[in-house]
Amino acid sequence: MDGPHRNVNPDTLPAPSGYAHATAAARGTSVFLGGQAGHRPDGSIAEDLVEQFDQACANVLEALRAAGGAPEHLVHLTIYATDLGEYRGRLRELGQAWRGRFGKHYPAMALIGATELFDADARVELVGVAVVP
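^ that's the sequence the OP posted. Answer follows.
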């Protein structure tokens, strides 16, 4: 993991791919990022899951940068998705979108299925925690 934080992936757990089992944060200012769906600046939202995910990642980064942080300061991310089957089926495309925004920075993550999100058109929402040294 690039940056000030350290990923911890014990040999006693399955090897992670696209996430870390744990992230040990360096000292700094904690930034709690509110839920970000795939809303564009004008408030509209695409129908496609990958497009929404990509925009949600951009929104997380925008909020993080506004708080003085950078992508490598993200230490935890929870992904809420309304269709886990589609999410799993499109992992390759979602991974490409992630790497386009965060590079190979993979903090501790969780994926949780949700029946719906606040915006009825949203298919994915990201909630993160960052520590800015």
